[in-house]
Amino acid sequence: MQANLEVLEGLVRRLDISVPVDQLETEVQNRLKRLARNVKMAGFRPGKAPLAAVARQHGPGVRQEVLGETLQSRFGEAVQSHQLKIAGYPRFEPKVSPGAATEIAFSASFEVYPEVKIEPLASGKLSRPLVTLGEADISKTLEVLQKQRRSFASTSEAAAEGDLVKFDFQGTVAGEAFEGGKGEDHAAVIGEGRLLKKFEQNLIGLKAGENKSFDVSFPADYAAPNLAGKTARFEVQIKDVQVAVLPAIDADFARALGVEDGNVDKLRAEVQSNLEREVKRRVQTKLKEQVMELLLAKSTLDLPKSLVALETDRLMKMTEADMQSRGVQTMKLTADMFTGQAERRVRLGLILAEIVQANKLVAQPEQIRTLIQEQAQSYEEPEQVMQWYYQNPDRMQKIESLALEENVVAWVAGQAQVEDVVTSFDELMGRA
Q1: Distance CA 95, CA 6 (A)
Q2: Above 60 in pLDDT, residue 2?
Q3: Which of 57, 128, 164, 193 might form a disulfide with 242, Cβ 3.0–4.6 angstroms?
Q4: What is d(CA 283, CA 272) in angstroms, rounded to the nearest whole number?
């Protein structure tokens, strides 16, 4: 068996593989003999069909099977011999052998993994949010939880921000009614952004039983093309104005949020613990985003087209499945929509793998357990969730990948210049 390696353009390589015909036929005959012992064929008892008849019926399939396995085996041996790291899958093509047909020749074309060059990271600058949680942050979070469990009560007062308004409306453009421009018993909370801002503002100050006419200009990029950039005249009739009633932060409120004994102090402690986990996650995410951008800027490598194609296909299928699961009518997706994202993911994957290997970074068992615990804490039965992770190798592999990412981020942060920036909780959450 010969396996000559040829270097083509970029990362593409080609191996020429020759398999002796007599060796191939010997294995085909051996398999046909084994098959003949039990094969069922019309006109013969099981295992009694002549070898020639078995060969006529099953020979082509067995020969293809043996050839495929032999090529894969020979290809694997050649890859080991040349110490190649294969990216993607090889493409086998038959070749015409000169002279006597004593060999079957194939060429296998494939890509190899690139060399990844990473410049020194000492000049890289990273900013890490430094957040100190205070009682005010806990109180604000409790207020959000109160609003999530609010009720509404009718009032004779004028509508204000945060009130629930029920109304009928009729809209026209240039005096003509338009589709979706009429509604009865419509309800919206002023300030939640479910209506156009100009429309909401015109509801403020109105009481139940009052009417009002006003103009609203639709933005040029409005979702409904027939209204984009146009001005509509609306007539509204206010049917009811309701003010929000927040539940008291008491034992019942605490029990409703899972604190069985209703202890409000325990509720605040749980809220603080949840916020601390969220702060840690957000800080890590922001640092990781900067680390990835730094690595992309400091690294040079060729991208294997085969890996990009595989990742593109994976992203496209994942998007299709997600759209179908949400009942969204599947639009025509093309590979071009995902190529840029796929290239970025493949590039980062190769860079991270190089750092992990070069610096012998490993995910420690206690690190993996901590990550699983953090994932499980948001569920009612954390221990069951932890068992759910440990019982499945695929889920454990995902957690291990997260741990390795954390280790890469820590390694890069140790090489680059990191500035701790005092940040409020609201700023970290993007609410400032």
Answers
A1: 15
A2: no
A3: 164
A4: 16
pTM of the model: 0.77
Residues 286, 380, single domain; the answer is yes
Question: Both ends of the chain: CA-CA distance in Å?
Answer: 69
Q: CATH code at 98?
A: 3.30.70.1050
CA distance 96 to 107: 10
For residue 209, with 0-12 CB atoms within 10 Å meaning exposed, 13-18 middle and 19 or more buried, which class applies? exposed
Rounded mean pLDDT, 29-50 = 86
Give residue for tokens 């300030």.
191
Residue located via tokens 């325990």: 266
2 neighbors 18 (Cβ within 8 angstroms): yes
What is the distance between the alpha carbons of residues 357 and 392, in angstroms, rounded to a whole number? 25
β-bridge partners, 18: 105
List, in order, residues 6 or more apart from 364 with CB less than 8 Å away.
403
Q: Considering its fold, how many domains does the chain have in total?
A: 3
Quote the CA–CA distance of 287 and 279 in Å, as a whole number.
12
Q: Look at residue 252 and tell me if it is in a domain.
A: no
Name the one residue in this structure whose structure tokens are 């206690």. Answer: 366
Q: How many CB atoms lie within 10 A of CB 266?
A: 15
Tell me the residue range of the domain where 67 lies: 3-112
Rounded distance between C-alpha atoms, residue 15 and residue 2, angstroms:
9
Q: Any idea which residue has 């396996």 for tokens? A: 3
Q: What is the 3-state secondary structure (H, E, C) of 5-40?
A: EEECCCCEEEEEEEEEHHHHHHHHHHHHHHHHCCCC
Q: Classify residue 149 by its DSSP letter.
A: T
Q: Is the torsion defined by CA of 318, 322, 327, 333 positive or negative?
A: negative
pLDDT of 106 > 90? The answer is: no
Would the pLDDT of 407 be above 60? Answer: yes
